[in-house]
Q: What sequence folds into this?
């Protein structure tokens, strides 16, 4: 599709402190966004009516406007797109109110998701800064198959939850033993994930490029998770060998 009639060349933020980026790098970032199969589905045009921004919860509290995101992408404002990826796109709560209200069928929230994924792919500092606090959650998810577990819910790690968080401070292991389901007798995971499932999850994350993106964002965390994956794969191979020996 030829969008040349609406392309704006080098119309970025004149007062931005962002370092100068080459035209080739700007085009590569936009091409990665545009190449996604979801792009044409999420962006159909823009009437510039502002309904998306008027109904956006994040717009009320942050320097964020869904309409701005749509306009930047619709006009292929490469500098503006890159600048928005340094901070603004991380203000979106992904509630998709914008998509529900847009009379043109756009999904600014979906476009933000694409921009976030490209920011991770390119190892942008904004992505590293946003994801760094979630490193423990990411480690828990990839190493156990669970995103959140009881031993993670404590005031030190979730201070933003407020004073009521102290109510969860309790002898969790003792309380979990009182729950009749054996799968809940652990505080390290929300539920037990068997070894075969873990290995299958690792394969999926490898094949879909999740681990490559993780390496771009946090190399140390990537190394730790790789070690855990290798160890569990060895355990799985040992288990299979034992089963074969039993069959013989």
A:
């Amino acid at each position: 599709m030829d969008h040349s009639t609406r392309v704006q060349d080098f119309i970025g933020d004149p007062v931005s402190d962002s370092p100068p980026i080459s035209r080739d790098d700007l085009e590569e970032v936009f091409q990665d966004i545009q190449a996604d199969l979801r792009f044409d589905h999420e962006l159909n045009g823009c009437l510039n009516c502002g309904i998306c921004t008027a109904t956006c919860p994040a717009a009320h509290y942050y320097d964020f406007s869904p309409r701005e995101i749509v306009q930047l992408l619709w006009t292929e404002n490469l500098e503006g797109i890159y600048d928005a990826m340094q901070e603004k796109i991380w203000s979106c709560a992904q509630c998709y109110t914008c998509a529900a209200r847009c009379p043109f069928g756009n999904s600014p929230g979906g476009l933000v998701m694409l921009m976030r994924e490209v920011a991770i792919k390119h190892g942008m500092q904004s992505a590293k800064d946003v994801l760094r606090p979630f490193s423990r959650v990411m480690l828990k998810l990839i190493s156990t198959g669970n995103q959140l577990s009881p031993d993670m819910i404590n005031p030190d790690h979730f201070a933003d939850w407020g004073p009521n968080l102290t109510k969860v401070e309790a002898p969790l292991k003792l309380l979990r033993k009182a729950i009749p389901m054996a799968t809940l007798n652990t505080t390290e995971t929300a539920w037990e994930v068997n070894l075969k499932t873990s290995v299958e999850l690792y394969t999926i994350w490898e094949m879909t490029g999740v681990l490559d993106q993780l390496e771009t964002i946090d190399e140390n965390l990537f190394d730790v998770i790789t070690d855990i994956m290798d160890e569990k794969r060895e355990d799985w191979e040992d288990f299979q060998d034992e089963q074969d020996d039993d069959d013989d």
